[in-house]
Amino acid sequence: MRDPYPYYAWLREHSPVHAEVGSGGRTVWQISRYEDIQPLLSDARLSKEPDRVPGYVPGPPGLNRHVLHADGAEHRKLRGLINSAFTPRRIAGLGDAIRRDAESLLNAVEQRAEIDLIADFAGPLTFRMICRIMGVPGHLSTPAARAVVAATVLLPSAGVSPAERQRDERGLAEFLRSLIAHKRVAGAEGEQDLLGALVAACDQVGTMSEEELLSTAYLLLLVGHDTTMNLIGNGMLALLEHPAQKKLLTDSPELVSTAVEEFLRYDCPARTSTFRTAAETFELGGHLIRAGDTVCLLLGSAHRDGAAFAAPDRLDITRDPNPHLAFGHGPHFCVGAALARLESTIAFPLLLERLGSARLAVPAEELEWKESRVMRGLARLPLVRI
User: Fold this and answer.
1) At residue 15, does pLDDT exceed 90?
2) Considering the chain, what percentage of its residues have pLDDT values greater than 90?
3) For residue 139, what pLDDT is reported?
């Protein structure tokens, strides 16, 4: 979890199409080269439907009928219901609100000698913003709500007991039911935001089932904040470990857009792509991938592939072009890409302005990385002012 990149390098050189036997005896293929991963992200031979793998449950029970677990017409339907909230024009209009929230969070820690960039800034900033887009009321947009959503992506090895996981899943279900109930009481007035529109699609138009509604609400709350939280945390750590690049961005804040793209490549907020399984048997790199096998596309490995990127292990905030795959490729390209980019391009200059002299409060090798199936992000990023 702390440093997967030597393992990725070994895979690319020795076993770029690598079979492992997963839980329940299922075959899981680890794909590590950019030239294979990029086309497979949009390959119709790979399905996003977990039902194709008997007994496999990729997320919390009852919350798996969303856009990341759908193909074809079902995928187009669910994506169409959320697309309107994430148009570039609508996202651009959130810039002032993002800046206000970022400045407010930094003001709150201004007098503290030590802060945790994840808990004090990156987590609350990104959760507030997705809650604003969805129309989550203030009394439900809380740190406790964020924690219960984030806990769902942790592996059993993260020290979460079965009883704690069941408690978190119950808490998540209760939170989502309260959220939907609030929107239903609000009626037509609540339809002005994304969640209200989804409730209307379920109750009035009938284009979305109750399970799809709950699943989509869960997915948006999770990926709408967790990935960008990781992007901000991973990017700030990269700058702290590369002081020359940090100085360059501090002196030239106009480089922030290419810097964000490089943070997405250098230490991608998602280690792997989301769920995919072979819909049919096909050959890849001399190996037969059979229908029903799970296919894991290692985005973090693709981004360090020397065949696709010059000096791939070097952080270069001026890198251009930068054809990273952090937001996916093809029909499943991340609907929230514009939001993640806007939040990050606002956050990094502010962080360097307000916390530019801060350093890590612990050695980098002691930082704790979240144990997650898909995401790559720090559990904490403790900084001390000097």
Assistant:
1) yes
2) 80
3) 87
Cα dihedral angle (115, 116, 117, 120), rounded to 10 degrees?
-80
- What is the 3-class SS of the chain, one letter each residue? CCCCHHHHHHHHHHCCEEEEECHHHCEEEEECCHHHHHHHCCCCCEECCHHHCCCCCCCCCCCCCCHHHCCHHHHHHHHHHHHHHHCHHHHHCCHHHHHHHHHHHHHHCCCCCEEEHHHHHHHHHHHHHHHHHHCCCCCCCCHHHHHHHHHHHECHHHCCCHHHHHHHHHHHHHHHHHHHHHHHHHHHHHHHCHHHHHHHHHHHHCCCCHHHHHHHHHHHHHHCCHHHHHHHHHHHHHHHHCHHHHHHHHHCHHHHHHHHHHHHHHCCCECCCCCCEECCCEEECCEEECCCCEEEECHHHHCCCCCCCCCCCCCCCCCCCCCCCCCCCHHHCCCCHHHHHHHHHHHHHHHHHHHCCCEECCCHHHCCECCECCECCECCCEEECC
pLDDT of residue 385: 93
| Whole-number Å distance between alpha carbons of 40 and 273 | 10
pLDDT, tens digit, for every residue of 92-108? Answer: 999 999 999 999 999 99
Q: Could you tell me the two tokens for 72?
A: 């074809």
Q: Which two tokens stand for residue 365?
A: 């090798």
For residue range 324-360, list pLDDT tens digits in order. 999 999 999 999 999 999 999 999 999 999 998 999 9
CA–CA dist 303, 266 (Å, integer): 7
Give the closest residue to 357 by CA, choosing from 379, 383, 376. Answer: 383
Query: In this structure, what token pair is assigned to residue 16?
Result: 């770029």
